[in-house]
Specification:
Blueprint: E1 13-15, E2 21-23, E3 31-36, H1 43-54, H2 56-61, E4 64-70, H3 74-83, E5 90-92, H4 97-101, E6 105-110, E7 113-118, E8 121-125, E9 131-135, H5 143-148
Length: 150
């Protein structure tokens, strides 16, 4: 069952691109932009990450921490973060624990074929780890603006 606004956000614990363990509880007292994306270094995912990067100062000024999550591993995340100078952690979830907790690992279809994949979704979580907003129609090129209007 999909998560709803007003629910407590599921806890997270995963390694980022630098091998650091990152937990949602590390951000207690901060707002968190938790965004799930399908794959490192693909056009839509790059546009989304770069939108958040380019507006990172504005996000920080509004009290947001930014965390990206995909099923890619640490090495892939490191390469992606370095290539585009991404200033925020990218969490590796190859076992899909976080993806499944947030109900973003789901059946998708392309060209008539169905497969399991990551549904691009962003959760805005408040200082008490309560979900304030769920952005399911992500505009990859203008994603930071979608977040900042909240």
């Amino acid at each position: 069952m999909a998560l709803q606004v007003g629910e407590k956000a599921p806890s997270i614990e995963a390694k980022d691109q630098d091998g650091n363990i990152v937990k949602l509880s590390d951000f207690q007292g901060k707002k968190v932009v938790l965004y799930f994306y399908p794959k490192d270094d693909t056009p839509g995912c790059t546009a989304q990450a770069c939108s958040l990067r380019d507006n990172y100062a504005a996000l920080l000024a509004k009290g947001y921490a930014v965390l990206g999550v995909s099923a890619d591993g640490e090495k892939s995340h490191k390469k992606f973060a370095n290539k585009y100078s991404l200033p925020f952690p990218l969490l590796a979830d190859p076992e899909h624990n976080i993806l499944e907790a947030y109900h973003v690992w789901a059946e998708k279809s392309m060209y008539g074929k169905t497969y399991m994949g990551i549904v691009r979704t962003t959760f805005i979580i408040d200082e008490n780890t309560v979900i304030q907003e769920i952005i399911s129609k992500v505009d990859t090129k203008n994603h930071a603006e979608q977040v900042l209007i909240n």
